[in-house]
Write a structure and sequence with these properties.
Elements: E1 4-8, E2 11-18, H1 30-41, E3 47-52, H2 56-67, E4 73-78, H3 80-85, E5 89-90, H4 92-99, E6 102-105, H5 114-127, H6 139-151, H7 161-169, H8 173-179, H9 183-200, H10 204-223, E7 224-225
Parallel strand pairs: 3-4, 4-6
Antiparallel strand pairs: 1-2, 5-7
Length: 229
C-alpha cells in the first residue's frame, strides 16, 4: 500500500516513486487513494505507466485516466515475453500513435528494455511538455465535460482542468471536497450532468466508464493480434 522511493542508476538527479499497483484512479481502495493523492498533490514530472501486455484492456483503463492528469506519461508494455510465447502480438508503434504518448515494450522478468523505459521517462520529464487529453469521449459526452471544464477555468491548476471536469461530471465527493468549486459551479455542473444522464438514460459514472471502455476496445482492436484470430 505504501509508496517506495529510489534513485535511477546513472541519474543522481532522478528520484523514482514506486506507487501501489492500481487499475483506476477512483478512490475506492487504500492503494488508489495513496497513488492518486501523490499524483495530484506532488505533481511528478513524468509518469512511467507499466501495464500487463497479456491483459492490456484492463490496464489501459488506468492509462487513459493518467493521461487526463496532464502530466507526461510514458507507457511500458510489460510481459511481452509471455505475449510472444502465447503467439500474440501488440503493435506498439500503433498503440503509441493512437494514445499520443511514448510507448515501449519491456519484460521486467527478463530485464528486457527496462532501463530504456526509464530513460524514455527521463527524456519526457526533461521535455516538460504537457500531453493532450486522450480522445476518449463521444461528441455529446465530450461537450458536457467541456462545459464543466469552462466552469472551473481559473479556479484549478490548468494541468488538472480536464481531469477535475470529469470528476465534477461524475459528482465525485472526494474531488469536490478538494476543489471546493462553490454552489454556483456545482449547480451548473449538475444541470449539465442531468441533461446527459437523461439523454443516455444512465448515470454519469456509468456513462464515463462505458465511453472509456468503448474507446479502449477500439484501440485494442487496432493494435493487438491474438493467436487464432
Amino acid at each position: 500500500v505504501e509508496k517506495k522511493e529510489g534513485k535511477l542508476k546513472g541519474h543522481d538527479d532522478v528520484t523514482i516513486q514506486d506507487l501501489p499497483g492500481i487499475y483506476s484512479l477512483s478512490p475506492y481502495t487504500l492503494e488508489e487513494v495513496v497513488s492518486r493523492q501523490y499524483l495530484v498533490e506532488e505533481k511528478p514530472d513524468v509518469i512511467l505507466n507499466i501495464v500487463d501486455g497479456t491483459n492490456i484492456e484492463r490496464n489501459l483503463y488506468l492509462t487513459t485516466q493518467l493521461m487526463e492528469l496532464g502530466t507526461p506519461v510514458v507507457l511500458a508494455v510489460n510481459m511481452m515475453d509471455l505475449v510472444r510465447k502465447n503467439g500474440d502480438s501488440i503493435d506498439v508503434k500503433k498503440l503509441a500513435a493512437d494514445l499520443g504518448i511514448a510507448t515501449i515494450e519491456i519484460s521486467a522478468l527478463k530485464n528486457e528494455s527496462t532501463m530504456q523505459a526509464a530513460e524514455l521517462a527521463v527524456k519526457a520529464a526533461k521535455a516538460r511538455q504537457e500531453i493532450a487529453a486522450p480522445a476518449i469521449f463521444s461528441g455529446e459526452a465530450q461537450a458536457a465535460i467541456d462545459k464543466i471544464e469552462n466552469l472551473t477555468a481559473g479556479k484549478v491548476d490548468a494541468r488538472f482542468a480536464h481531469w477535475y471536469a470529469i470528476k465534477l461530471f461524475e459528482h465525485e465527493e472526494r474531488a469536490i471536497a478538494t476543489l471546493k468549486p462553490g454552489k454556483d459551479v456545482l449547480a451548473k455542473a449538475k444541470a449539465v450532468r442531468e441533461g446527459l444522464e437523461s439523454q443516455f438514460d444512465d448515470d454519469a459514472e456509468s456513462i464515463v466508464t462505458s465511453e472509456r471502455y468503448d474507446a479502449i476496445a477500439h484501440i485494442v482492436d487496432e493494435t493487438v493480434k491474438r493467436s487464432g484470430k
